[in-house]
Design goal:
With 328 residues, this protein is mostly helical. The chain has helices at residues 18-45, 48-55, 58-91, 97-103, 106-109, 112-125, 128-145, 153-172, 180-186, 195-219, 224-231, 236-247, 249-264, 268-274, 284-293, 297-323. It has two domains: 51-121 and 190-323, MetI-like fold; 127-178. It is globular.
């Protein structure tokens, strides 16, 4: 026989959710409102005539062209690096993997000025012998620590051989005080305060974002496709090129797009390492800085709106690829 509910028992009721929903809506609306007000402030600051005038300036046109060229070059380099690195982190388990994975995130976490300053010191204050010594030390630590598995004797021999090679090169160049900038300038690829330096300044952070995107892409692709390909006669590299990369094509485009967008917004490393010389190393981010320095706030706002438009377009491309089933 079922027991009746006593009069002194409390009946629990579901409390209304509207206070919590109201809180969520308030937070979201406040944040979106701030973003819209920031964009709107730029729109209200500049008129169409002022925007047209600033865009007709020869230096600004050079800045826009250089921005597109350097961002595209950075995106291509980032994809070239991120595909093998992302594949390695996704498919292989090895000692030190967590350390390598963390190391690749350092450019994202570092203050941008530190990235530019580090490049400036590397190319102008560090000799080739010191670079060889640092690389040899890193290879030696990797070999001792056992990044390779115990059975991978070929990898261990490669690392030890790298230590010996770097050590010999270090001894050969130990008496030279030539900097890296002197060497790359002699072969026709100057970096510091040069347009090529803009690409190098954009690359570390942009490549870090591309690596994350590619690792996520490869994680979403089953290894069974590669295993089937290898049973049909492909080696690992052929399986990557013929099977995995076609499946990851949208992820590759997304990685390149993310790298392009991140390179577009890079400022600190470019300012420190490549400079902001009018008509030479000036890109859109440094153009905004230069326009503010000369007191041309409407011109800076016009360039800011152009960068916002490019950033939003890039975001829409990434969202479109994600919606179409790309592994992003």
């Amino acid at each position: 026989m079922e027991k009746g509910i006593r009069s002194d028992q409390k009946i629990w009721r579901v409390r209304p959710e509207w206070p919590f929903l109201l809180f969520l809506v308030f937070v979201v609306a406040a944040y979106i409102g701030l973003l819209l007000l920031m964009v709107g402030a730029n729109v209200l600051t500049v008129s169409w005539s002022q925007a047209s005038e600033i865009l007709k300036d020869a230096d600004i046109q050079h800045s826009i062209i250089l921005t597109f060229v350097t961002c595209t070059a950075t995106a291509i380099l980032s994809v070239f690096v991120s595909v093998p690195v992302g594949y390695l982190l996704s498919r292989y388990q090895f000692r030190g993997r967590a350390f390598v994975d963390t190391l690749l995130d350092i450019p994202i976490l570092l203050p941008p000025l530190i990235v530019g300053l580090s490049l400036l010191i590397l190319f102008n204050r560090v000799s080739p012998s010191a670079c060889c010594g640092m690389l040899a030390g890193g290879a030696l630590i990797a070999a001792i620590w056992g990044i390779a598995r115990k059975g991978d004797r070929i990898v261990i021999r490669f690392l030890v051989g790298g230590v010996v090679a770097f050590g010999l090169l270090s001894l050969v160049s130990s008496g030279s005080e030539t900097s890296l900038e002197d060497i790359v300038s002699e072969v026709g690829f100057p970096m510091t305060f040069h347009p090529l330096g803009v690409v190098l300044a954009q690359f570390p952070v942009a490549a870090a974002f591309a690596v994350r995107t590619m690792k996520t892409t490869f994680d979403q692709i089953s290894p069974r496709y590669e295993e089937v390909a290898m049973t049909l006669g492909c080696n690992r590299g052929q399986a990557l090129l013929r099977v995995v990369l076609p499946l990851a094509s949208k992820g590759v485009v997304a990685a390149g797009t993310m790298a392009w967008a991140r390179a577009l917004g890079e400022f600190g490393p470019i300012l420190i390492f490549a400079g902001a010389t009018r008509g030479r190393t000036e890109v859109l981010a440094t153009s905004v800085f230069l326009e503010i320095n000369i007191g041309n706030l409407p011109g800076a706002a016009a360039l800011s709106l152009l960068m916002i438009l490019l950033a939003v377009s890039t975001l829409l491309i990434v969202r479109y690829l994600a919606g179409r089933g790309g592994a992003v």
